[in-house]
User: Fold this.
Amino acid sequence: MSNSQRNGRPTAASQYLLVAFFIQTVAWSLSTQASSTTASETKLTAEQIVEKADRIRFPAKGFQVDVKITSTKPNNDPVIKEYRILSKGNDKTLLMTTAPAIDKGTILLMRDHDLWAFLPNLSQPVRLPLSARLTGEVSNGDIARANFTGDYEPTLLGTEKIEQDTYYTLELKAARRGVTYHRVLYWVNQANFRPFKAEFYSVSNRLIKTSHYQGYKKIAGEIRPSTLEMVDSLTKKSRSVMTYSNMRLRELPDKTFTKQYLKKLSK
Assistant:
């Protein structure tokens, strides 16, 4: 019997086995935690991507921006309409028509999930669905409730290489009834979270239109798309181009987004 055995001390071999067992146990525990974390964060990661892309498109704080929408169809003259947008967060938007003159004075108010139209020749506001057409290929919700965060439940489908860039591909499903689209496929640049393309689908899963985010430049302190082109999926020839200009951050009190306040503006 060795001295270490007689004195009750562990041998070098037994110490090695204990250390090896401890390391193996810790490694297994960390591996299990990592697998669990990855599985639980899949949805959160998709939500973060969508939120970052929203912030690329528009500021999180209150802002003002002018939008010009040029709609074209075969054998028709272009239709041009202009708007001024005041927006605060995801649930407050004011859309004022500035041109053409015949539509001037028409105001849309989006508050929470409700959209109201204030028309100069009507004494009471009219409630509108977000999915209704505003002009050309543009729906009310495309401009009055443009952020995807909160309205859709995103799932990260994977990534796709397009030319030199890699894009996240996401599926967005309507989180509740009344949102603009039933389903959206969304491509977001993996390197900088800039939106690239979106496909919009109906309840019957029919592709309605495709949008491309273009003309990236510095706007209101960030690199943002200055144009959004929407193309009808059926004919491929009807399209609307939304051009953003004069975007700036602006303090907007909540009273700006009330029916009482807008009745004054529409007079």
